[in-house]
Design a protein that fits this description.
InterPro entries: NDUFB3 (IPR012576). Keywords: Electron transport, Membrane, Mitochondrion, Mitochondrion inner membrane, Respiratory chain, Transmembrane, Transmembrane helix, Transport. Belongs to the complex I NDUFB3 subunit family. It is found in: Mitochondrion inner membrane. It is a single-pass membrane protein. This protein has about 90 residues and is an all-alpha fold. It is built from five helices and no strands. It is elongated, with a radius of gyration of 36 Å.
């Protein structure tokens, strides 16, 4: 067995031949003070693209349809008679 393989087995990962450590770089970078894309991305969450407006516009006409359906059910219950269905389908249908 070669000595280099023994050293690599101890560290548990393959060393970078350039000496660049991505973990150290990410840690030193931290969170940027100013995001240059922040203004370009802001439109996605405001105005007509806000969460409420996207939900509200997902089903156009649902509110009007619900009110119309409830009004029809009320009209049917109050004004349309349902006398015929209690008789059955006997001799009276000639």
């Amino acid at each position: 067995m070669y000595p280099s393989r023994i050293l690599r087995a101890q560290h548990g990962e393959k060393p970078n031949i350039t000496g660049f450590d991505i973990r150290k770089f990410a840690h030193s970078a931290g969170q940027p003070r100013y995001d240059p894309w922040e203004r370009a991305e802001a439109w996605r969450y405001t105005g007509q693209f806000s969460r409420w407006n996207r939900f509200k516009n997902a089903f156009p006409g649902l509110g009007i349809a619900t009110v119309a359906f409830v009004a029809y059910l009320g009209y049917e219950k109050l004004f349309l008679s349902d006398d015929h269905h209690g008789d059955g389908h006997g001799e009276g249908h000639h």
